[in-house]
Amino acid sequence: RLVVGYALTKKKVKSFLQPKLLLLARKKGISFIPIDETRPLSEQGPFDIILHKKTSKEWQRFLEDYHEVHPEVTVLDPPNAIEHLNNRQSMLEEVADLNLSSFYEEVCTPRQLVIMKDPSSIPTAVAMAGLTLPLVAKPLVVDGTSKSHELSLAYDEASLPMLDPPLVLQEFVNHGGILFKVYIIGEAIQVVRRFSLPDVNTYDLLNNVGIYRLPRVSCAAASADHADLDPRIAELPPRPLLEKLGRELRGRLGLRLFNIDMIRELGANDRYYIIDINYFPGVD
Ligand SMILES: Nc1ncnc2c1ncn2[C@@H]1O[C@H](COP(=O)(O)OP(=O)(O)OP(=O)(O)O)[C@@H](O)[C@H]1O
Ligand SMILES: O=P(O)(O)O[C@H]1[C@H](O)[C@H](O)[C@H](OP(=O)(O)O)[C@@H](OP(=O)(O)O)[C@@H]1O
Ligand SMILES: [Mg+2]
Ligand SMILES: [Mg+2]
What we know:
It contains 9 helices and 14 strands. The chain is of the alpha/beta class. The mean pLDDT is 92. It is globular. The relative contact order is 0.14. A hairpin with a 6-residue loop joins strand 13 and strand 14 (271-279). Belongs to the ITPK1 family.
């Protein structure tokens, strides 16, 4: 028997701990027990695994103190590893220096620039960094609040000072409007297609000014798995690449439960960009 103690938001319990999962788990001798965060963890359990997705500092300390005393309990995933993903700069650092051997397709991250404050400094900073427009502006901090998913697209330099630091500015990469979401669960890998943002062309650049708030595309995005799409756009990344990425990122991030948002550059069919990494996402 395996006892999994869980600390999840009500929303997450609803979306993740569905009856069919609990049933399947019970058949495999796995039981899920809710953790009472108001009582010491050592008075609860005993647990074989603690599964959690909580962002508060006190929970992080609570869990780390418990793990000191109970190193035999597997914590999915260690809070200090999850912390890496709470900032869109540290999130992608591990991917930026992934130099996969030439056996694999190229995997990189879009060029990006962190702006901590002073929006009036953005045009000069962007020019100095040589970033090309349009740019996707993303809140620097990812803490699960809807604010951390408020993205916008900046088409022209004059509108950059309207942005709201702290943020990361990432070059927009045309990718045919389809995104690959690669779910990594230990050694298992699942990949799905999602509709993404449409490509930007020179017409858009010449005729659009201002900052465009982007609708939440990713977790709400309809699956694109059944759309009849151009295979050059919709063809999934090669399995050996995904397996290599899974191994590399599990090791570098120290995580076993996460997904990566991957896009393939339009017209360069073996260049992929990782644009986002999420800890313990849903599988809507
Ligand atoms: N650099 C980029 N180039 C092209 N499209 C992008 C880029 N960055 C983001 N996008 C598009 O915007 C969507 C949301 O971006 P991102 O995944 O970084 O935001 P998020 O708030 O972390 O989303 P999630 O709900 O997946 O956590 C992506 O799924 C993709 O469709
Ligand atoms: O489309 P996916 O499965 O990636 O959607 C995820 C999303 O990527 C984020 O991981 C969300 O977590 P937060 O960043 O905490 O909002 C997930 O929401 P959750 O409530 O299921 O954890 C989405 O499912
Ligand atoms: Mg995403
Ligand atoms: Mg994300």
